[in-house]
Amino acid sequence: MNKKIFLLTAALTAVLAGNAQNMSSNNPQVKTANGTVQGVTEASGVRSFKGIPFAKPPVGDLRWKAPQPADNWQGVLKADHFAAQAMQQPLYSDMIFRSAGKSEDCLYLNVWTPAKTANEKLPVLVYFYGGGFRTGDGSEGRYDGESMAKKGIVALTVNYRLGVFGFMAHPELTKESPNHASGNYGLMDQHAALEWVKKNIAAFGGDPDKVTIAGESAGSMSVSAQMASPLSKGLFRAAIAESGALLGNLSPTPLAAAEKIGVDFAAKVKATSLADLRKIPADSLLKWGASGRFGCTVDGYFLPQQPQEIFAAGKQMPVALLAGWNSAEGDYKSILGRGNAPTVENYKAALQRLYGDKGNDVFRQYPAATKEEIIASGNALASDRFIAFSTWKLIDMHARTQKTPVYRYLYTRPRPKLATEAEAPTGAVHSAEIEYAMGNLHYNKTYNWTPEDYKTADVMHALFVNFIKTGNPNGAGLPKWDTMQSAGNNKVMIIDAETKAVPDNTQARYALMDGLIK
User: Fold this and answer.
1) Would you say the pTM of this structure is higher than 0.90?
2) Could you tell me which residue ranges the Carboxylesterase type B domain spans (predicted)?
3) 442 an active-site residue?
4) pLDDT tens by residue, 268-296
5) Which one from 146, 259, 329, 435 is the annotated catalytic residue?
6) Which fold has domain 2-168+183-250+302-322?
7) Is 140 among the residues known to form the active site?
8) Cβ neighbours, 10 Å, residue 416
């Protein structure tokens, strides 16, 4: 009898131990500097931790202040769902958030990490979302870090303040700041997240000395800002910039001009003091702020000079850089004007309207003799005017002033045509590359992806993974990609179903664009 009881007890103990082990593996816990977080184990074995606070909620008196260190907590914080998105208006239909609602209390990050093994020191990716500094969220499926984690990378997405909450400057804010600066709170949120990574990522298996920052559009502009900021020293070793930089035509606003925008906004909402502004409910402030355009500022602290001046002097972070843009960031129709057919006459007339006596010079660099050439050159010019030129400027200046490797791409793969579209896409539109680069085509159910799309995604994802791991995108079975500084290299990597390096003939075109902007 005693023996039976013993065997039964042993069996029960084994079952309970097994259940406890399963519970442990399904609900992994990590101790951070602020307290213990409990995530979940995905079906793939990847561990995810969502909604980890990296700073105090920027509410009340902390509205329009630099992010403050997060408070410690007792017990275990459940990190099993995305935290609220930053305050924003719904502007873009392709932004599909998995977070519930929006709030000023938005400074949270998400971590995906491979199944835990002993003494891991894995490379780390920190991704900043796009959205014009007005919208975006780290919960979007196209940024999801599981695909990166499956390749041995600890991946993070970071929320940061947007619009009037993240970028308004004002003389009173400048006066109260210990740094005599205002604006750029969203950029400082990103910086605070990088400080959190430096302090905590080893507990998730990551190596704080192997951090790559990346982003698309406003996220890419953020990458250039973090590279330019003197506060970034030692926080990352490599950067990926997808379509955008705070150089050239997208340079930040000087502080005095940004403060004037803040003063005008305060008058519009009938606030006579900073205290009044801070008393306005977040929803009301968002409604009023939607009509304004608040962007990055040369604040004298986070950005002590124009980024272009910082890069020209070689004072930016000396990190490896992989950067590029898409073939149809802009649309040729925006060049021709509403209702104008793509004829040579209309195209030349449009260039004269846009550039006056420089119109013929522009035509020589963006030539067209057929409808197809008008579409191609019009897309290229619209793309440059929008965001491609600033990205080229980032690449060119970094390659000229640093010895670290620089890799440039042009993404040309159009998305599949939708049934609702009258015409097939004429190129790769703004943001089209994100799902491919991050390995997340499966999150976008809008398109019927083809084998060529998956082929493109496999190669682009592999190039990005290699770069994140080593600072070099090259690897077995991939097209050879030389750095911009390689002797005799005048090629750019075209990323499409047939990814390959081709001769680059755009130097004169960008020299012209540079002169037009100056």
Assistant:
1) yes
2) 27-508
3) no
4) 999 999 999 999 999 999 999 876 789 99
5) 329
6) Rossmann fold (3.40.50)
7) no
8) 14
